Amino acid sequence: MRWTLRFALPALLLVIIISVTLYIKFAQIWDQYSAPSYAWASLQNTLRGSTLDNPPAVAGKVEDKVVIMARVESEDTDWVAENLPDWQHAIYTVNPSASSPNTTLTTPQNKGHESMAYLTYIIDHYTSLPSTLAFIHPHRRGFRDAWHTDTPLHDNVDALRTLRIPYVQENGYVNLRCNWNPGCKKAHRKNKHITPEVWQEVFKGASKASFLQPEYVPGEVGAACCAQFAVSRDRVLERPLSDYEGLRQWVVDTHLSDAHSGRVLEFLWHVVFGMTAVYCPEERSCYCNVYGRC
């Protein structure tokens, strides 16, 4: 009996530890992926045979707004022109091949993930920017690939169709993700990617000299992930062209890898576009202001 208890108790403790770990992990995924709203929207879509995840194209002329994204050559981005005909689009291929058409937009280097395309667009069009710029990823939708797209079906078409352009103009910058997880929760704000040294490197030569003062380096940096956002032309122009050129040059010159340098800027776009180091609007008001989901 004693031997049985000696082995049973550690086994029970191990089962409890594993169960708690799995529960915590599942709860994180449930929250990050907005699983309840995704499941409900998918069920509605199936039962009603609706087009919730495939809204019809909007007829009319192209408006004063642009979608900017980076893609690898194998990624299909035809969905942009097909479903967002009222948006201009600038789709950069970061790894063009010899067979790529001459009209293909490319970046100076395949580094920094989407940041190289985002900055290249601003630099090349600084004097002729549309009034609204939306920076998004090339995958349209999907529970696994586009979990960070903050609409019920994780669909970037839905996101841009419901984006409240007047609010973008009013606020200057909006994160297209309102869900605080990951990026905004208290535990996420001690950001290992944004060290004082990295902050100083990124903003070296910035037009706002205060950014280079040691006392300005924030103790916390927070914003909802994952480098999908919209800005107004006026907000972009609050920085001189040289600032964006400097940011792109940092991506080129840094010893950090493609992924790591891209992650650094992912955590700093809100700062680049004039928001506080921790920019985490309350979720309900964010959904209402950004998407009209009040």
Cα-based radius of gyration, to the nearest Å: 22 Å
Largest sheet: 6 strands, mixed
- For the record, give the distance between the C-alpha atoms at the N and C termini, rounded to a whole number: 62 Å
Runs in which pLDDT lies below 50 for 5 or more consecutive residues are 22-27, 38-53
Q: Please estimate the helix content.
A: 40-55%
Query: Taking strands numbered 1, 2, ... along the chain, how are they ordered across the largest sheet?
Result: 3-2-1-4-7-5
The shape is globular
Strand content: 5-15%
Q: Overall pLDDT, averaged?
A: 85
Number of strands: 8
What pattern of helices and strands is seen along the backbone? HHEHEEHEHHEHEEHHHHEH
Count of separate DSSP helical elements: 12
Class of secondary structure makeup: alpha/beta
Notes on the protein architecture:
The protein is an alpha/beta fold. The protein contains twelve helices and eight strands. The strands form two sheets. The protein has a six-stranded mixed sheet, sandwiched between helices. The chain has a two-stranded parallel ribbon with strand order 6-8. The longest helix is centred in the first third of the chain and has 31 residues, at 2-32. The protein starts with a helix and ends with a helix.
